[in-house]
Structures are given as C-alpha cells and as structure tokens.
Amino acid sequence: MTDGLSQRLDRFARNLLPAFLSVILVLLSAVPFSIPGYGQVAANWALMAVVYWAVYRPELMPNVLAFALGLFLDILVGTPPGLNALLLVLARAAVVTQARVFRGTSFPVLWCGFALVALAAAMLTWLLSSALSLTALTPDPVLYQAGLTVALFPFLVWAQARLHNAVL
Amino acid sequence: MKVRPGSSLRYLAVPLKVLFQRFAFLFLILTAFGLMLLSKAETVMVERVSNAVVDVVSPIMDVLSRPAASVNEAVHRVRELAALHSENERLRRENARLLAWQEAARRLAAQNQALSALLDFKPDPRASYIAARVIGESGGAFVRSMLVNAGKRDGIAKGQAVVTGDGLAGRIAAAGFRSARVLLITDINSRVPVTVESTGARGILAGDNSHQPKLVFLPANATVKIGDRLVTSGFGGVFPPGLPAGHVVADGDSGIRVQPHVPLDSLEFVRVVDYAGVWPQISDEEDAPLGPLRPVRAKRLAP
C-alpha cells in the first residue's frame, strides 16, 4: 500500500526536523552574546546535533547534511572553510559505525562516547588550525571548548529528544 | 506470482547504495581538505561563495542578534542604575577636565591652521565613517573575527579600518553586498603598523589569538615603557594615521604585550573608516551626527 500525497508530504516535512534544528543551532553558534571570552570557548552545538541524530536517526543526518552544516558553520564563524565540515562528517561516521554501542544504552554511556568524540574533534581542530596557520597554537581554547560542549550535551539531548518524540 | 518489472534491481540497489555512501564519504572528506587548502591560497572563488552565503543569512543573524543585544543592554542598564551616583560624580569631573581640553584643542586648531597656511601644508587624505551593527561573533577557538551588517552597498571594502569611540578594533577581511567580516586586531592573522606615541618608534601590532596582541619589529634602539600609547602609523595607506590602538601593559618573556583600547568581546556597534571621504569636524553641538548611527564617544576619534 502506498501512502497518499498528503501523508508523504507530512512525513517529508517531519523528516526535515534534524536538518532544520541543526541549521538553527549553527546560526545560534554565531550570535554575539557579548560575554567576555565566550566567543573563543563557545560550545560546538553543531557537533552535538550531528552526534545526536547520527545515533538515533542516522538516515535523517546523511553525510552530505553533516558536511553542509559544517561548511555553513565555517563560513559563519570564519574558521577555514572545510574544517568543521570535515569534523562533522568524521564525527557522524564514528558514531554510525558504533551505532550498536550507542543506541539503546543508558545516557551516561552515550555521554562518555560523546566526550570521546568531542575530545577527538578538539584535537583535530587544533592540529588542522596549527597546520593551516603554520604555527604551533596553544591547545587550551579547544580543550575548554570541548569541556563546555560535553557539559552542555545533556541539555541539548533533552531538548532534542522532546522535539524528536513530538515530531518524528 | 507476478514479478513486478524492476524488482530484480532491488538486489542491486542496496549494495549500490552502500557503495555510493562510501564514495560520498570519501568524496566529502577530500572536498573538505581541498577547501581548506583553497582558502589558504586565498582563492577569490572561496571568498565570493562565503560572502554570498553570509549575505543570505545576515538578515536572520541581524534578527537573532537583537534579543541577545537587548538582554545585554538590560543587564547593563541595571548595573548602571546601581552605580548611578558615582557615575554621575565621575562624569562631572570628566566634563570639567574635557572642557579644559576643548579649550586647548580650539587654541591648537587655530594655531595649527595658521601654521599650516604658513607652510603650505598638504593635509592627510580625508576619511569618512560607515556605522554598522555587530551581528555575529566568532565561535572558533582560533579565530578572532565578527560579522557586521554593512557591506559593499554601504561603501565598505576589504582592508578598511574598523573603529569604535575607544579606538581601533580591526579591519575588514571580506566584504559582501550587505554584510562584512571584521578581522579583530587580536587575530593571529592581524598585523597593524603602529607608532609608539611618546617616542615615535614604528612597529607592528601583531595578533596571536590572545587578548593582548604583541608589539613586534621595533627598531633595535627603541625603548617602550608600560603605559605607552600606540596609534596607527598610517604606513601602507590602509589605516588613517593616529587611530589609538592600545597601550603597553607588559614587557616580558612573551614579548611586548598591548592591551587594546576597544573592548573586543562586547562590541555592539562599530564604525568602518573609509579613508577617502572627510574627517569629522569638531562641532559645538552636543549631538552632532557623525554617521548614520549613534556614534560611541565619537569626538575622541580625531586625535
């Protein structure tokens, strides 16, 4: 049995939720909050979103979407274009290949897994940024950033899970 | 049982899909690396595409940044209210001091005019200002930049100096049609030719992503003291000379550190210097407009 047009449209619209939410999170990453020092250690909301959807609905967070989100973030915040795109595609791949570990486990396990992903992303950011600027940058800001991202992850999971259950 | 045409393809579809996804993954990884290298080579195309994307979302960023700005302003107001009395007292004293300075400035302006006329002095090129609101700040750990809501349509071009009433904030790194990216003086890619005000020694103010950029390439015999003010030297012709950039706060192992005068973390409005128009004239009117938007203590700008 095939669905009616309206049903298919409805499902299509609902399936856009991950993309829509992630774009909003990317935009929010670049909004000026005028908190001294926040800009440098701002949490990586896009990473949280990509990891969340890669765990629970990987088919709605395809590689191309992760790449596009990362590129969009790069352009908005002025990081070298391709840097966050690379990170998000790699993070998605890492989570999807370990989907059996992540899905269905308790939240603390997911949180630990996310902490590993965030730390790896931070180190890769530091390595690539250093290579691109041809200087050894201090890794402190990315480590703070990773710490903040991991600390805020539960809030985002909670919010996204509510929307996820309501819409999808 | 009737076999639907095309169903045999389904056996192929799944492995093909997997293959395609693997290929897409590799392709995206390589594209990301390619983009990073392209941007390192400062390709015009990458810059154009970035500008276009930022232009498209800049109205959204503009709207999003307003509530954040409003909350900040509210917090600021409450703080101000608490310090109203002492602030009033401080302003009274400052006003008295500034009146004396105004007197001195008038006398010097008249003297300067007379002496310039005597010497047949050729004045500096004139500059005009374009006011802009900050709509996006850098979320990167290794980037110090921000987005403003003015672009080529407002007369902004790459390389122009960005200032506030306190002094130099940065320069335009990329200009879109209605938005532009400002590279702050603390960014690792920022290099500003400056002069030490007291001695006239020339150097370069070089950002390194920390809060306090370094003063480098000073002449070997030059000495700087803590507290020395730095102003733009105007070398290179990009920045007008005399914009206050910061003051020396430390001279130690990590080089000569300079504290920028501008609070780069909490900027809401900035002005972009178009170094071809007119300098603002000293005016006796209290709220003499210097740009399309409320200027922040603008009279201090022309030193």
Q: How would you explain this protein's 3D organization?
A:
The complex is a heterodimer of chains A (168) and B (303). Chain A is globular, with a radius of gyration of 17 Å. Chain A has 9 helices and no strands. The model of chain A has no long low-confidence stretch (mean pLDDT 86). Chain A is mainly α and 168 residues long. Chain A has one domain. In chain A, 77% of the residues lie in helices and 0% in strands. Chain A starts with a helix and ends with a helix. With 303 residues, chain B is α+β, with helices and mostly antiparallel strands. Chain B starts with 8 loop residues before the first helix and ends in a 29-residue tail after the last strand. Chain B is globular. Chain B has a domain at 128-279 and 290-300: Thrombin, subunit H (Beta Barrel), CATH 2.40.10. Classes of the chains: A mainly alpha (168), B alpha+beta (303).
Write the layout of secondary structure elements.
The complex is a heterodimer of chains A (168) and B (303).
Chain A (H helix, E strand, L loop, with lengths): L4 H11 L1 H14 L7 H4 L3 H12 L6 H15 L5 H15 L1 H4 L4 H27 L6 H28 L1
Helix pairs in contact in A: 2-4, 2-5, 4-6, 4-9, 5-6, 6-8, 8-9
Chain B lengths: L8 H32 L3 H39 L1 H36 L8 E10 L7 E4 L12 E4 L2 E9 L4 E5 L6 E6 L5 E5 L7 E3 L12 E4 L11 E9 L2 E6 L8 E6 L29
Antiparallel strand pairs in B: 1-2, 1-12, 2-5, 3-4, 3-12, 4-5, 6-7, 6-9, 7-8, 8-11, 9-10, 10-11
Summary keywords:
heterodimer, A: 168 residues, mainly alpha, 9 helices, B: 303 residues, alpha+beta, Thrombin, subunit H, 6-stranded antiparallel barrel
Coarse shape of chain B: globular
Low-confidence residue ranges of chain A: none
What is the N-to-C order of secondary-structure elements of chain B (H for helix, E for strand)? HHHEEEEEEEEEEEE
Calculate the mean pLDDT score of chain B and round it.
81
Fraction of residues in H or I helices of chain A: over 70%
Beta-sheet strand percentage of chain B? 15-25%
User: What's the CATH topology name of the domain at 128-279 and 290-300 in chain B?
Assistant: Thrombin, subunit H
What is the mean pLDDT of chain A?
86
Sequence of strands across the biggest β-sheet of chain B: 1-2-5-4-3-12
**Which percent range describes the beta-strand content of chain A?**
under 5%
Query: Structural class, from helix and strand content of chain A?
Result: mainly alpha
Derived structural class of chain B: alpha+beta
